[in-house]
Design a protein that fits this description.
Layout (H helix, E strand, L loop, with lengths): L1 E4 L1 E6 L1 E2 L2 E2 L5 H13 L2 E9 L3 H17 L6 E2 L2 E4 L21 H4 L7 E6 L8 H8 L3 E4 L12 E2 L16 H6 L5 E4 L8 H10 L5 E3 L13 E4 L2 E6 L2 E3 L5 E4 L3 H10 L5 H8 L1 H7 L5 E6 L2 E7 L1
Parallel strand pairs: 2-5, 5-6, 5-7, 7-8, 8-9, 9-10, 10-11, 11-12
Antiparallel strand pairs: 1-17, 3-4, 13-14, 14-15, 15-16, 17-18
Helix pairs in contact: 1-2, 7-8
Amino acid sequence: MIKSEGIVEQHIHGAFGIDFMKCSVSDILEVAKYLTENGVCAFFPTVMTDDLEIIKERIEIIKEAKQKQDKKSAQIIGIHLEGPFINPLKSGIHETKYIQPLEVEIFKKIEDDIIKIVTLSPELDITGEFIKYLKSKNIKLSLGHSLSSNFEGMDQITHLYNAMGTFHHRNPSVIVNVLNSNEIYTELIADSIHVSDEVLKLTFKYRPLEKIILISDALPPSHSSKNEYIFAGQTIYNKNGKLVNSDGTIAGSSMLLCDIIKNLADKNILRIEDAIKCASDNPLKYHNINSNINLYWNSNNIEKIEFI
């Protein structure tokens, strides 16, 4: 039996049929409860690119849920703001009409202390003032949905390999620079869909294990019976566990972190102990989180949870 502290979902858009961009306070509290049953001690509801007024509304709803939540459920640590300050050329399923320039005055329209992580495209911060301002607010900056090859000034990388410039043997690449770095933290969606098993093995071989943070990037259909769902203004289809829009663009994951840990262990891509470390120890340390649960794993499955 393996004992660990709870796992941390630092990039999750919803699950169990509930969407953080549409839901109520009670819905968020329900997700927190169900996440705990799946071994999660803490999470960062992820707010994505949308109209600024809707983003502001979502922030207020999540703040209220944080204030009301039970100690025996996964704790809301803060918001991961994925967009709207991203590169439209790497928008993925984000609606490009809502993408905003990296300007301090625009950020101030939605600014709130509950925002703890911001995914952005640093190459679009021409003056450097946007990044400087966010750093002054102790926000963790994550390079993502970006064409930059330079991660200087960033704290982490959003879902490594996805929505960024590709690996090239002659041209500068953020992927090559990350694989050569021992410093920067990297999110990784290890569901064998967003990143192939071969590339996952390569990543775990060349990146320091303590700098990898496993994420689910789960969408509302995760752990639900829904095969179609309207998300980010478009229909998302569940194709045998692969969530895509009508043109085949991969959206988030249908897995939660507990599923991803099991996936890595079952395929012998990563030892169960190391997978748990990347989903638990690393983000707990990175965010200075005190876990409220002890998690016991039997083989590759969660056996029991104890509140502490």
